[in-house]
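Lab notebook page, bench 4
Experiment: in silico fold of construct C2
Operator: M.H.
Input chain length: 528 residues
Purpose: comparison with the prior construct
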Amino acid sequence: MGITIHQRVLEQAERTPRAVALRGPGGAYTYAELAQRVRALAHGLAAALPPGARVAIHRPKSIDAIVDLLACLCAGCAYVPLDAASPMPRTRFVLEDSGADALVTDEHTAALWSQAPDALERLALVVMPDGHGPAHPRRRTHAALAEPAPATEAVRPVAAEALAFLLYTSGSTGTPKGVAITHGNASAFVEWALEAFDVGPGDTVAVHAPLHFDLPVFDLYVSLGRGATVCPADEATLKFPEAFLRWLRSERVSVLYAVPSALLALLKRSTVAKGGLGDLRLLLYAGEEFPVPRLRELRALLRPDARVFNLYGPVETNVVTCCEVGPAELALARVPIGTAVSQARLVLVDEARAVIAPERTGVEGELLVSGPSVSPGYWRRDDLTAAAREVVNVAGESLRCHRTGDFAAWGPGGRLDFRGRRDGMVKSRGYRIDLGEIESVLADAPGVAELAAVGVPHPERTTEVVAFVVARDGSARDEVPLLARCRERLPPYMVPAHVYWRDALPHTTTGKVDRVQLVAWAQEGARR
């Protein structure tokens, strides 16, 4: 491991102390002010907690929440970002499952813990504003914890294998599972991204995704490590596409990393075409496939020299492939996920677990990943970690890999074509169906702004495929031409049984389409 992600930010503060580091509704911090606040809070955390302690951060995305994250790392602690929008039972589960030693809140979230004061009893430190939340014997305010501190307070050293943060994702059992990210994991990704993307002074980088998601690792540590200005978009702004569009323009955001669903919501608004997105010069997307017809529309709204990249990688590995989206890619039915990034080794295996050589183009297999950005595993879940690991032999070399559960195929030049997730593959009437293929057919239909296909349990056919569609402004809601289009381009067993029109698709807290909710709607007869 080279320099840590937090030390890189502090060194940037020495180079550009007067430049604006963070800007949000609550004000702005220069790099010098950011470093001072981070060091002061880290000093207080280090005095109260041992190295390696886990600190749960429970507050909405803001410039001060970002200070908290950096302070945890500088104190030699690991942070556990909690979803401020989650119900308390889920939040409490994450707090307890992570074994957090401390909890940091603000005026928005402190009062929520009055519903579960007993969950705080074992904590060594609780940071809450005065007049908010339950009593606690080791309760401090932010201000009290951060005073006084030397301006050059030393940063606790950390090893590459030390935990940097825990990111909780949905689990198949219905309870979240924590993905452990080490300092070595985070540094490997950041070092690659710094080489791959020209982000630096003069750039305004949006933080679109919530802090408990993995996309902000780029937004924060790549951007602040290079002298850019980072602007977190608050949830009130993101709730309405029109408000988000106004925010992008008013902040003159030049770099945006988001899931396609968020960008599709912008395209649905007729006002986006009037002013375009001319300040954006670098657009990264990940987490979902972007329908090519909509991607073409989005590209037309960007300035001619803007660059667009499709990134791929689960939380457990961070980004492992990258594809720049140019005219050639926009002419394809589906944009490839690209070639391996420098810190990743990629392997495809067939159903017999035999390695598929890159020369065997078009042959589908499960994608396995090895390299320094791969997480050591799931927090306190050795069973899940073991199930997600596989040792494969590639040209005489044994690689310990993470099983992504995603399917891909080699294309020309070592590029990978995404063939769907395991949860994106269904069987109906004995046929294996890729829901993404159905979505690609419907995405190009006139009047379609956003859509998703899902497999729904059916008493007679095991699984029935249905589609949920959001219409573009002013377009008619008629399923007949859509089904006719499917019949024209797909075999009979792949034609959706129903098309349901909605004003909007449901999304998870990380911005992806909530397919679990769509299945529930379909089972209810889409009576919503």
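Observations: The mean pLDDT is 91. Residues 272 and 315 are 31 Å apart (CA to CA).
Next step: discuss at group meeting.
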